[in-house]
Amino acid sequence: MVKKLKQMADKQATSSKRLFDSALAGQVKDSAQQIWLAGMGAFARAQAEGTKVFEALVKEGTSLQKKTQSAAEEKISEVTGKMSSMAGDVQARAGQHWDKLEGIFEERTAKALKKLGVPAAKDVDALVARIDALSAKVAKLSKAAPAKAAPVKSAADKPAAKRAATARKSAA
Fold first, then answer.
1. Of 2, 30, 46, 88, whose Cβ has the fewest other Cβ atoms within 10 Å?
2. Widest CA span of the chain, in angstroms?
């Protein structure tokens, strides 16, 4: 009897094992089929919504490009401003050096001309002003002279006239 019970228990265990194995295989098969169907659904959804997602990505990319371009333009304008400022500083320094060099050149040229006896520009200007004043006086005197009759000079008056002419020349 024990043997029979044991055999019956073994048969039952074997049959339940077969049932368990077939049930497990059925569950695995059902799970695999569900996974397959979920993948097919995701693929179908991706195809349907793919264009929407693509357009959204394009919009985001455009927005990002605009932001980076504006940031780059700001940096470029900032650098351009700095470079312009630096160029202005360099130009100002160079201008100061040129002014200094020009002053030195003018001083040395004036000294050399003075040593050679060439009158300076201010001396020439003073002489021109004096000549203009004298020309005005001569013109004034020449207008007054025809109204008077010129006296006849005698031989005694000639040396006095020469002295007056010499005095006028030395005064000029």
1. 2
2. 197
Is residue 96 predicted with pLDDT exceeding 60?
yes
**Residue 132: predicted pLDDT:** 96
Please list, in sequence order, all residues whose beta carbon lies within 8 angstroms of the beta carbon of residue 172, skipping any fewer than 6 positions away.
130, 134
Q: What mean pLDDT do residues 124-141 have?
A: 94
Residue pair 8/2 in contact by the 8 Å Cβ criterion: no
Query: Taking phi first (over 0 means left), then psi (-120 to 50 degrees means alpha), and beta for anything else, what does residue 148 get?
Result: beta
Q: Is the pLDDT reported for residue 172 higher than 60?
A: no
Q: What is the mean pLDDT of residues 80-85?
A: 89
| pTM exceeds 0.70 | no
Q: Which runs of consecutive H residues, i.e. helices, occur in the chain?
A: 2-116, 121-144, 157-171
For 153, residues 6+ apart whose C-beta sits below 8 A from its C-beta are 161
CA distance 51 to 59: 12
Tell which phi-psi region holds residue 98, choosing left (phi > 0), alpha (psi between -120 and 50) or beta: alpha
User: Is residue 120 within 8 Å of residue 114, measured between CB atoms?
Assistant: yes
The conformation of residue 154, written as its DSSP 8-state character, comes to -
